[in-house]
């Protein structure tokens, strides 16, 4: 298990460099000069050039990126161009919000998706057709549109849940959970439908295997066959879809956090992009990449538990 984790972490290092280098390049291509934006249009060219030199923006892009990597290895992601605060402080303060969304969305995707998939596989008929219809609907509707509809119906028309805002867990667990109900629903709908379809197909496939027929012929109780053999083997491909659902929740959080005014990483990403805050954008790219790597690592660990052959790969 430790060797598997070590291999996955080593292979993740090139991903960090590729993502951060790509973000560095694309951020530099965003129209607008940060120095000019900070000083305003009335600033003289000399003042703008002096600020660019102080911020290191006059150096070649490759030199700027190498300097950033050297500082990042030392856990120094620089300071925000606009607030002057350390990037790590800004992102660490908002990280719990985004992690809460991803964690709760993944739990909902796993429990609801796998349950619907099993029911659809075992019952079939109208349940399976309804799942197909809901799946198409869930995939077609973007998460931010679902978020707007949820706010309009369950927060404005029928004020059951708060429309905006976030309460820290340590302050009030109840208000924390209540404020995340609508965002989590908006984020997890697509993942639930995808996982449900994958689980249904996997269960149906496993139930047709020869060893399952042998177990049935041996007189073993159906519930033991289902939970001990069918569910375990059907969960192997489903785990991958759950991991993809968690990653999709991360990308969807950029839009959902802005709809519900949640002070998470996605909310900061939009603001930093509009202001062309390069250090903050690079820090966000690094944090998002680390979260993706962590999700993939967890998926690999769960996958290796369900299928020990993976540990030898």
Mind explaining what this structure looks like?
The protein has 313 residues and is mainly alpha-helical. Helix content is 78%, strand content 0%. It contains 12 helices and no strands. Helix 5 runs antiparallel to helix 10. It is globular.
How is the secondary structure organized here?
Elements: H1 2-28, H2 34-39, H3 45-55, H4 61-73, H5 87-123, H6 126-140, H7 143-157, H8 173-207, H9 210-217, H10 222-259, H11 265-275, H12 278-306
N→C terminal distance: 11 Å
Question: What is the C-alpha radius of gyration, as a whole number of Å?
Answer: 24 Å
Beta strand count: 0
Q: Tell me the fraction of residues in β-strands, as a range.
A: under 5%
Mean pLDDT: 83
Low-confidence stretches: none
- Listing every helix as H and every strand as E from the N terminus to the C terminus, the arrangement reads HHHHHHHHHHHH
Q: The biggest beta sheet, please?
A: none
Return the CATH architecture of the largest domain: Orthogonal Bundle
Morphology: globular
Determine the fraction of residues in helical runs and give it as a percent range. Answer: over 70%
CATH superfamily of the largest domain: MetI-like
Structural category is mainly alpha
**CATH level 1 name of the largest domain:** Mainly Alpha
Q: Do you know the CATH topology of the largest domain?
A: MetI-like fold
